[in-house]
Amino acid sequence: MSPAGWEAVIGLEVHCELLTATKLFCGCRNAFGDEPNTNVCPVCLGLPGSLPVLNERAVEFAMRIGTALNCEIRPSVFHRKNYFYPDMPKDYQISQYDEPINVDGWLELPDSTRVGIVRAHIEEDTGKTTHVGGGGRIHDAAHALVDYNRAGVPLVEIVSAPDIRSADQARLYAAELRAILVASGASDGRMEEGSMRVDANVSVRRYGSDEMGTRCEVKNLNSLRSLGRAIEHEIGRQVAVVESGGAVAQQTRHWDEAKGVTVALRSKEEAFDYRYFPEPDLVPLAPDRSFRQRAVAGMGPMPAERRRRLVALLAGEVSASGLDQVATVVELDLDGLVAAAIEAGIGPALALARTANEAAADAEGTRHLDPGAYVKWLRMENDGILSATQAKAVLAELLDRGGDPAEIAAAKGFEAMAEDSLVAVVGEVVTRSPAEWERYCQGDEKLAQFFIGQVMKATRGKASGKAVVAELKRLSAGA
Amino acid sequence: MTREDAAYVARLARIDLTADELDLYAGQLAAVLDHAAQVAAVDTSGVAPTAHPIPLSNVLRPDEPRGSLDRGEVLAQAPAVEDGRFRVPRIMGEAP
Amino acid sequence: MSLSGVSATALSLATDVRSGTIKATEVIDAHLAAIAALDGELNAFVHVLDGAAREAAVAVDRRVEAGEDPGPLAGVPVAVKDNLCLRGAPTTCGSRILEGWSPPYSATVLERLVDAGAILVGKTNMDEFAMGSSTETSVYGPTRNPHDLSRVPGGSSGGSAAAVAAGLAPLALGSDTGGSIRQPAAFCGVVGVKPTYGTVSRFGLVAFASSLDQIGPFARNVADAALLFDVIAGHDPLDSTSLDRPLVQVGPCLADGVAGMRVGVLAELVDGVDADVAARVHEAAEALAAAGAIVEELSVPEVRYGLPAYYLIAPAEASSNLSRYDGVRYGLRVEASDVAAMNSATRAAGFGPEVKRRIMLGTYALSAGYYEAYYGQAMKVRTVIVDAFAAAYRGVDVLLGATTPTTAFPIGAKTGDPLSMYLSDVCTIPTNLAGHAAMSVPFGTGAGGLPVGVQVLAPALGELQMFRVASVLEAAAPPTPAPSPPPQGSGGGVR
After folding, report:
1. Could you tell me if residue C353 is inside a domain?
2. Which residues of chain C make contact with B8, given a CB cutoff of 8 A?
3. Is B93 domain-assigned?
4. What is the pLDDT confidence band of residue A332, given thresholds at 50, 70 and 90?
5. SS3 label, residue A93
6. Which helix (H) or strand (E) holds A469?
7. Rounded distance, CA B86 to CA A151, Å?
8. What is the total count of domains within chain C?
9. Cβ contacts (< 8 Å) between A272 and chain B: which residues?
10. Is the pLDDT of residue C1 over 50?
């Protein structure tokens, strides 16, 4: 939250690497983690005489992202952004400037807030610089080493409108964007590996004002957590500066994860003069209808749509925690399993809760399960054949070794209790606790949990809580 | 082009120039720019710029790997190498 | 004093090598001998590929002996400008900053030559990074004009023009950004062709100004130039600006004549040039009329804005293209305490004055606050010129004019005054801005017996009609003085 009386204005710039086989302008492999300078050729090394040729798949991925972000896809032009830096082999970056491929879109957060997307354009990545000596800190380093494997890897840069108002919302935006990128198939969205990189433009203003404060760009945000922390800190810092009578200086600031602070990098007085001009070695891009259709063919619905569909399936009022569960299963790509279960007649609340909690704990494993087996597993608990505790044990085994849920349950001795023996146990328990039974019969339903616990103890967890409740109800009705 | 302009562009273009060179180039380039400024005389209202003499669009290549260069051959051309990478003096600023 | 080596044409050499009448090794030896004898004076070559050329010639001979056809350029020595990348061979662009650099790959155009059986004989001298009109800005010193060693051969492809004129190679490749093939061809009395932009792949051509650069042939006659053009033209998927459309071979059409062809004598390329040069253009127009062409005078006033537009567009692109010479990955490095200082010191030491001037000019034209007035406006003027040419070509098939305002000027005459040097490209630049084709054909001499070139301009992909006109002009031209006699001992059995 912003300090009282203040409002933050935040826009995010997200760079994501595209999942192409090759680089943006040459046939070198687009791979992470290879030996330095092994995926290089005359083009991505910027050798004299080399020329770029645009990767068709990268354009398709960019159009997928644009479509997923509700952008207008337009004819576009590549420009050169000129500045010297050793990780950039040509000392200019090929990017899109005033005619980007995607413009004017929006992204919907799980709470239905819309954040505007200004543009999502194609550009090439730079190489990787390692600072040597001086503890790896840039200014103290003795020298630097450059690896050009990443140089020329295709990126899409997604620029949001300054519509974000808090660190939490920024995190939600980044998470949602990541889910969209993954769902579009264009990127793996891995922040730790740097395939998704987030910079935040942050300014503050008095609540109710519609002026824009001086903004700072915060870099080095390597996780959603550091994104949230860095923005929180930066908002506090800027408010403190203004409240103490100072003025925020326009700066690029670096998030220091260990110290939990942002540090000034350079002031904008040394602003770069990028001398953008149209890249003469590339021709304009004007995707026609069929190219655009080909690009998005096979692309499934985006998370917001998937959430809507799931909520509709849940039929009826969905609680706030239910909405969180919906967001979780969609983000983890498990919503298909929930939908399959509900369609197969499993209780919606159970299907959602088990998937958002137990299954989500191993989302990767769950995604690899046979959906039929998963639904069968849910059905056993749904029908009272397994207790909740037993169901969790069966899922763990199912994820661990695979197999058939019924056989796993049988092997574990989780035989469903015969109805008559359950009736007997419940009857016994009720008789042993007359005071509690009296209160239950008078309408104190909380005591159901007490009786379930007693029955579980007596049956060593073999009973189904649902069946116990049914029997309790039957007994009390007759009492 | 003034001497200050010349100093600014030399810095942008990363070329060290002596004071004498700055004076010489500023004068020569001012003369060239005077001539080039004739383009201002052309009425170009409503005229689109030409970036490419022969208009083409959508020139694309399939996303198929082609061979990369041998690292030894690449690094053999470099002024300084360390640990399979290009070695450069320390870098004083972050990339923009 | 003048010089000349081997006089045999490329067409006759290729024919004889393919038929086994002569060996490729004999051909290459004769040319290597001529280079050894004459190039000390001319300085046309910066690197002679003697070993590799002999090996290639041996391979060609083996193929002929085995009954194979090595291709249309079998055994023909070709000199290539030093801005064309050849795997494993020094490629310096006449610059100190690329001293010692050998590219790990070859230009598409050189692969096409080798596939056609040609023998790459050496890399030729040039103005540094092709920036110049006299071949005086090379770090290897000036090339001299074979017709008069005190004069420049023109530039920037002066080494290639001089090598062909002097008989050190029957064919050569140059690059033409604002006239760098046609202007030295005119000064040296040879044929020089600037093809339509996108006709010849630029992959492996070290860029000067990417939207203007085009590789093209030098030869001593039109048929040889056509032979080379037909080999190098064609689509290349490695160059995004390469035209992917069927090309007509020009060689078979050279004798088709110009009867009924409409020729416009372009006033802007005749008025204001030296009287001796203008006189040759008018004689050339008369010759075409005599051959059945319909000749008219016409004016395209917009081409006068070509030079100022060019001197904004070309340096702007160059300033960006030359950023990569930063001392990090290849070529020269001058050590310094941090990377920015290293970049600046390296570039200060590695680039010559003309390159520095153009980088500064281009940087300025693109910089914040000046872009619209300079670069932006120049790009619009470019459109105006393109449109004006298009209108002219609705009435004529080709245009005719001077290639250069003067004949070859003395070495050193313009080095102190960049603007006067730039003005020597005034007749050739408009073609590059429009992306059209043009060529220079020797047509008699001017003052002092120096060669004069007449320029034939054609619209995009108009090479066929352009070559047909050139062929008629060649037949009608007053004899061009051969740089002769050849010094004793050079040439051997191949003349």
Report:
1. no
2. 367
3. no
4. confident
5. strand
6. helix A465-478
7. 13
8. 1
9. 96
10. no
The percent of residues in chain A predicted with pLDDT above 70, rounded, is 96
Q: What is the C-alpha to C-alpha distance for residues C229 and C225, in angstroms, rounded to an integer?
A: 6
CA distance A173 to A155: 19
Q: What is the per-residue pLDDT for A137?
A: 63
Q: What is the pLDDT of residues A83-139, one digit of tens each?
A: 999 999 999 999 999 999 999 999 999 888 999 999 999 999 999 999 998 765 666
What is the predicted pLDDT for the residue at A316?
A: 74
- Say which residue, C265 or A269, is predicted with more confidence: C265
Could you say which of A21, A145, A147 has the minimum Cβ distance to residue B64?
A: A21
- Rounded to whole angstroms, how far apart are CA atoms A94 and A464? 63
Task: State the residue for tokens 């190498």.
Answer: B81
Let me know if residue B14 belongs to a domain. Answer: yes
Could you give the 3-state DSSP secondary structure of residue C396?
coil
Q: What is the average per-residue pLDDT within B67-83?
A: 96
Q: Does residue C433 belong to any structural domain of this protein?
A: yes
C-alpha span between C382 and C209 (Å, rounded): 14
The alpha helices in C43-165, defined as continuous H runs, are 50-65, 108-115, 158-165
Task: List the structure tokens of A268.
Answer: 């904008």
C84 contact residues in A (CB cutoff 8 A) = 49
Cβ atoms of A472 and A443 closer than 8 Å: no
Residue C35 lies in a domain: yes
Q: In B1-96, which residue ranges form alpha helices assigned H by DSSP?
A: 3-12, 19-36, 71-76
User: What's the domain range around B13?
Assistant: 1-41
DSSP A414-458: -PPPPHHHHHHHHHHHHHH-HHHHHHHHTT-TTHHHHHHHHHHHH
Tokens representing C60? 């060609």
Contact C237 A91 (CB under 8 A): no
Could you tell me if the ipTM is greater than 0.95? yes
CA angle C116, C237, C47 (to 5 degrees): 50
pLDDT at C440: 98
Residue B2 belongs to some domain of the structure: yes
Cα–Cα–Cα angle for C330, C334, C339, nearest 5°? 80
The nearest CA of chain B is from the CA of C92 a distance in Å of 13
Cis check: omega of the bond before C156, within 30 degrees of 0: yes
Interchain pair C333, B1: CB under 8 A: no
Domain A419-478 matching CATH 1.10.10: the answer reads yes
The number of C-beta contacts closer than 8 angstroms across A and B is 143
Check residue A266 and give its pLDDT: 62
CATH number of the domain within which B1 lies = 1.10.20
Tell me how many domains chain B contains.
1
For the beta sheet containing A251-256, the strands, ordered from the edge strand earlier in sequence to the opposite edge, are A72-73, A102-108, A114-124, A154-160, A6-17, A196-206, A216-221, A251-256, A261-267
C180 catalytic residue (yes or no): yes
Query: pLDDT tens digits, residue range C426-456?
Result: 999 999 999 999 999 999 999 889 999 999 9
Residue A124 pairs in a beta bridge with A154
**Both structure tokens of A94:** 């090929």
Domain with C184 in it: 10-236+253-304+381-476
Side-chain-side CA neighbours of C201 within 13 Å: the count stands at 27
Name the minimum distance, in Å, from the CA of B19 to any CA of chain C: 13
Does a structural domain hold residue B20? yes
Kindly state the tokens that stand for A329.
């299963």
Q: Which of C84, C107, C240 has its CB closest to that of A52?
A: C240
